[in-house]
Design a protein that fits this description.
Elements lengths: L4 E6 L5 H14 L2 E9 L9 H32 L4 E8 L1 H12 L4 E5 H4 L5 H11 L4 E4 L11 E5 L4 H9 L1 H6 L2 E7 L14 H9 L4 E6 L6 H12 L3 E5 L5 H7 L2 H7 L5 E4 L1
Parallel strand pairs: 1-2, 1-4, 2-3, 4-5, 6-7, 6-9, 7-8, 9-10
Antiparallel strand pairs: 5-10
Helix pairs in contact: 3-5
């Protein structure tokens, strides 16, 4: 995919190290950065003691506004120092407003970046994940802590389960797949699933990707009772993968949060960058 605009997020308290990784990606791709400073704003109080509580709320909002302004100045200096093309937007609002805003802004980017400063933030992760993964039309790149993803990955692991989410992720990653030296299509416990392609799982996908000039191998992995995510992570580590491509949330997000799931496991922890699409 030709990346000309990244969309990323930061919070008032996020360390600059996360922003610097985004800066490195933009410089490597010669791309524009659309950065959203995001946070959940406290709602005005409604009670019989409204007058007193309103004063406290206003003082809290004034402090938030000052912190936001300082953070914008700080990030602006960092981006200017690196000579980036960028815009910074501030969205401190309600849960639903943040979702609508992110979905709207995502129409004008090529790739959405998610790092642990957002994913691990219990206050802001839900509306960002909801808008980025479920409602936007753009792929998501999950960035591990301290790692700047290689935009020219040599070894790509493609997770395949014959579901539409996986197919969309592959389409969004097709240039990475085309240009990689080695692409492994990984299928875990294929015969525990109702496969919709040929009798040999992954064969149709391998043929399709081969037409794009990819050096393809299909790897059938048995979980041996382990979680699918654990099997994929272990394979990616052992083979030195630079990028994992996978569909996001084949099951409902609530089900994955309660019972566990591959997407949630990779959002919680990954040592390899992951390109996702729902």
């Amino acid at each position: 995919m030709a990346i000309r605009t990244f969309m990323s997020f930061c919070t008032v308290n996020a360390p600059n190290s996360h922003v610097r990784i985004t800066v490195n990606l933009c410089k490597a791709a010669n791309a524009h950065l659309s950065l959203i400073l995001v946070g959940l704003a406290s709602s005005p109080p409604i009670s019989e003691y409204t007058a007193v509580m309103y004063e406290n709320w206003m003082a809290e909002r004034d402090a938030e506004d000052k912190a936001i302004s300082n953070r914008v100045d700080n990030v602006t200096s960092l981006l200017e120092e690196n000579g980036l093309s960028y815009n910074i937007d501030v969205k401190y609002s309600s849960y639903s407003d943040i979702i609508d805003y992110v979905v709207s802004k995502s129409c004008f980017c090529d790739l959405i970046l998610l790092d642990n400063s957002i994913i691990k933030n219990s206050f802001i992760s839900n509306p960002i994940i909801e808008s980025s993964i479920f409602q936007s039309t753009r792929p998501i790149l999950v960035i591990p802590d301290g790692i700047t993803p290689d935009l020219n990955p040599k070894k790509v692991v493609v997770c395949w389960n014959s579901r539409p989410e996986a197919a969309r992720a592959i389409l969004n990653a097709i240039e990475f797949v085309e240009n990689a030296e080695k692409v492994d299509v990984v299928i875990v416990d294929p015969f525990s699933t109702a496969w919709k392609d040929t009798a040999k799982p992954g064969a149709d996908l391998a043929v399709y990707l081969a037409r794009h000039g990819s050096n393809i191998s299909v790897k059938i992995l048995e979980s041996g009772g382990k979680d699918t995510a654990v099997v994929i992570k272990q394979y990616a580590k052992e083979t030195g993968a630079d990028l994992i491509v996978m569909g996001a949330y084949g099951h409902s997000r609530l089900r994955e949060r309660i019972f566990g799931g591959v997407t949630q496991a990779f959002l919680d922890e990954t040592s390899v960058p992951v390109l996702m699409a729902h």
